[in-house]
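General statements about sequence and structure are easier to judge against a single worked case. No coordinates are needed to read the tokens, only the vocabulary itself. The sequence in question and its structure tokens are set out directly beneath this paragraph.
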Amino acid sequence: MEEKDIKKMVFNALKTIAPEADVEHLEPSVRFREQFEFDSVDFLNLIMSFQKSLDITIPEEDYPKLSSLNGIIQYLLNVRP
């Protein structure tokens, strides 16, 4: 999986979970909850969507690493073969 594929997956998930999010203008290093309304339930739904789509398990202690676009990209690039 390449960075562009991860971005596309994140954008699609965010459009479903937080339709008000302007995903095209996200600041990659800024936490989602600082850019648009994104609560803990939304965040868990995002994590679950990655787990389901990629057939992986993300340990709860890794969740903070996934709070921004850059964090998700780096995490998934290192998790996926």
